[in-house]
Amino acid sequence: MKRYLSFFLITLFLAGCSQEPQTIEELAKAGEQAFVAGDYEKAKKYLAEGLLKKSSDREILYLLGVSFSRQYQYDSALYYLKRADLLHPLDRQINLEIYTASKQVQDYDNAIKAIDVLIKTGDAQSKYLGELADLNLRAGNIFVSFLQLRKLWEEQGQENPNMYLALANLAAQVDSVDMSIRIMKQAIDKFGFRDELVSNYAVYLAGANRLSEAETVLIKMIPLSSNPDAVRLNLANILTLSDKRKKKIEAYHIYKDLYTRLGNVLKLDSTVTALKEELNL
To answer: Does some domain include residue 246?
Structure first.
């Protein structure tokens, strides 16, 4: 009898040990253990069950979101991480994960918000200025992007010619072509007559209807350029904007010369034909 009773007790004990976690504490602990072990499917199972018992639990929401991230399911990850952020704002750990997941799914607005929290909780703004400028540009916040890039340029970028190009491009997009011209003039004064700087400078001059200045700059650039035919092409493009027949004829001859020497590499056949018909040559 004692033997059977002992067997019965052992069976009950083993059954108790094999039970699935039931309470919120047990589910949270089991989910965390599965997460640490890299078993994200099991972690999600336990954590999701725990969330049904306590929908505002910070650790469960966070670990559930990160479990989805570890399996590259970033949309689902963001769903839980943003819920955690709503309930627990300014949480640095949560926003580090939102920052990573948002960029993966090109959710630029949430990436920007996450960076804002990271700055508020200790990171230097300068660390993110370039990225914020890019994210805001992608999100359609062009003026904000321009302000951030200008700040980055002022603090770190004045020795980088590409920064001048990017800043001038954004200035033009916020309807400040005059500023674009000033930026490119500064770049040329600092770095000299480089093809990309002069070409952009001429384009912005033309955009401000300062065609004769753009023409003069490009003519000056031709003997200095590593690719004079590209400069001639830009010159012809600007000459066609003139309302003077003489300038358009000059453009036609440049196009025709380029087409004759380079074939249709520059896709100029239709341009030459159209301008010839316009001028009745």
So the answer is: no
